[in-house]
Structures are given as C-alpha cells and as structure tokens.
Amino acid sequence: xxxxxxxxxxxxxxxxxxxxxxxxxxxxxxxxxxxxxxxxxxxxxxxxxxxxxxxxxxxxxxxxxxxxxxxxxxxxxxxxxxxxxxxxxxxxxxxxxxxxxxxxxxxxxxxxxxxxxxxxxxxxxxxxxxxxxxxxxxxxxxxxxxxxxxxxxxxxxxxxxxxxxxxxxxxxxxxxxxxxxxxxxxxxxxxxxxxxxxxxxxxxxxxxxxxxxxxxxxxxxxxxxxxxxxxxxxxxxxxxxxxxxxxxxxxxxxxxxxxxxxxxxxxxxxxxxxxxxxxxxxxxxxxxxxxxxxxxxxxxxxxxxxxxxxxxxxxxxxxxxxxxxxxxxxxxxxxxxxxxxxxxxxxxxxxxxxxxxxxxxxxxxxxxxxxxxxxxxxxxxxxxxxxxxxxxxxxxxxxxxxxxxxxxxxxxxxxxxxxxxxxxxxxxxxxxxxxxxxxxxxxxxxxxxxxxxxxxxxxxxxxxxxxxxxx
Length: 471
Ligand SMILES: *Cc1c(COP(=O)(O)O)cnc(C)c1O
Prior knowledge:
five-stranded mixed beta sheet
C-alpha cells in the first residue's frame, strides 16, 4: 500500500474516541451506546474500504475529522429514533399502503390503551366463568351492521383468501374470470395465492369480457367454487363485461357450488351519498346471495389490519374450524381496535365524523380550501420570507386499491424554500421531525391538505421551521 493511504488509514479515529467527542457525546445516552457504536463502526468500515481502494487522485491530503463527525451525527441520532414511527402524509392518497393505510379513530385508540395495558376478556367467557373464544367478540356486531349470518376475523385479507380457498376448495377447482386475476401491491397475486392454497384455478373468459356461459361451460364434477375478485387497483374500461354477482349466485345454486367474493376494500357505507363513486357495499354483496364475502379491515373500513370473512353460518364455520385459522388469528390489539371502529358504524354520521379514513374521503373541497388558506397564512407568518407558499388545486386518491380511478378534488400548498430545489426540499422534508411525505408534480412540491390530520398542522409548522433553520 502506498504511504499516503496507510497514513490516512492510521488517522481514522477509534470508535470510542469518536463516541466521546464533544460533537457526538450529547447524542449518545448510555442506553444507546451499543447501537451508536455499531453505527460508528459501520461508517468507519466504509471509510476504510474507500481509502484503501479509491483512485490515488481522489485521496485527500489529510483526514477531515469535522466532516466525518458531521456524517456520523445523523446516523447516531437515527439510532435513538424508532424505525416504525409517525409521519405526516401530505401525498393526498388517503389509504396509503406504504404509510400504514388507515389511522385509527380516537375511540379505537382509547380502547387499545385500556385493553392492552391490562388483562382482558380475550378468551374468557365472563358469564360462564370459563374459557371463551376470541372469535366471538365481534360476530354479533358484524351481524348487526351487515346482516351476515356469521363472521370470522383473521389477521389480514390475503390470509382470509388463502384460508377460504384452502378450507372450501383444496384439491378442487375454482372458477375465476381472467379479468380478475389481479396483483395487489406486488406481493399478492391471485394465481400464486390460489396455487399456495391448494385449490386448482380454472380461468374463464377473456381479459375484457367474461360471460355467464363461460363460467357454466367450465363447471365439472371437480368444481367447488365460483370466485369473484374485486379488481381493486385497476379498471378495465371500454368494451368490457363481467357477470353481475346475482347471476353468478343463481348459477352457483343451480350447480350446488359456493360463490365467494373477495371485495378487497369492503365498504360498509354507500359513499356515493357523500359524493364518491358507487362501490358495492358488503351488505349489498351479502344480500345478493354470496356465500362468503372477504375484505380488509384497514382499507375503506378505516380500522386496523385485519381480514373479515362474512357469510353463511355453515361456510364460515368451515373456516373457523380449519387448522390454518390458528395461524391466521388476529391478536387482541386488532380485535380491540376493530370492535371500537365497528361500533362507530352503528351510527353512520358518527362513523363519517370519527373514523379518520371516512372523514378524509368525504371532506368537502370548500373546507379544504379554507384550511389551506389558513395554513398558508400561518406558515407565512411563522416562517417569514424564507418560504414561498401558495394554495393550488390538487387531485387526491382513495388508494388501498379502492375506487382506483376516482380522483378526489383537493387543495395543496405549493411550497418552495429557496435555494432548495423541489427534490432537495422533498428529501429534507422526509428527514424532518416528524418526517413529511410530500409529492412533486410538474416540478412543484405539493403538500396535499386532504390527508393532513388535525394534529399534523403544528407538527408541520415545527418541521418546516427546522428545515429553514438548517439551510
Ligand atoms: C387489498 C386486497 C387484498 C389483500 O388484503 P390485505 O388486508 O392487505 O391482506 C386481497 N384482495 C383484494 C381484492 C384486495 O384489494
């Protein structure tokens, strides 16, 4: 090794020396020492590697300790921060799967606090004083809200789909339209889920059109189920047709086959009353005669991650008693949050007002406009001439694979903090406390008002103050 490289490598400080340096020391409380030391070690190893291998022309004359410390400080601070933490969703996508889908209602949070901090009735029957089932807590409520004969709550909807196929059609055939062989979020592909469940897929029809006789011609003595899947995150438009559920149900009855619908989002309220597009509700799907309806707890329902399976008693019981159900059972935090959320549905106006997902979806644009102007004024006042902010029209999305082509008219703040470019500002906002997730459109950074929660506003202001102070 040439002498310059060897000298620079020797100049690299020891881990302990760095951790004791006045620049870093205040950021390293004793309980974080191990994590901080690991972060320093990783950085030093990368530096050593670089010094040993970079082109000779790139070698610095001396090691720059100050810039090394500046590089280490945020890494050490990150060691003190939880990885899974709150962010401000300023994207305008309401059910944002990457950002945790639905924020929970206050009633759900309060009930989690109560149940999780104490012992609970999770599997205890208070009336009899003996063992109970966790699967009994929500069934009555779901019957009341949806009219379903029976209900089972699972860990998530993908699990519910696997379980339904396994328990009801393992080793037998399931007929599904080619137009519904969907992939959701990259990790849920219906053909793969089907293969995993042990059911045999019989695709019928063409991508854009499937007719009742396509289903009928595919029925054999091996057929167990007709499956309908909500196309979720895409729409086939133009020259299309799919078989309406009631016709599929009639066909199923004639051949003694189960009819199952994976609704995906599973809406419990007709949102067309609030200006959104009509989406078949869970209640309508059950009324149309589906034997089993499956949907998520954290999409349009606005609750925690869960999979709900509702339908005929005999069918739901086959799921409930299947061994796989033990592996897919929901935990007590899920059940608690879901029960509290579902209770809000007993009074529709209360559900709309108190469930954040529903509130954000139905928020009138005139109100968003008013809020946007208020926020812009208050940011200008608090942050002075360092920030340029303007209220502009924006288009939000439902997200979560629900109502994919529906655009939600919204308002956004177009934000600039010179001399940062929009991508630089976007990156700084992501590193703010709390992180702010914005979007860039036509070279402008936008903060969409539709997905801001009430307590995001002070946090947003503080975070922007931090960004300006760091310029
Ligand atoms: C979202 C979705 C799923 C998966 O539900 P998770 O609750 O995320 O597991 C399955 N099917 C459809 C049609 C969906 O939209």
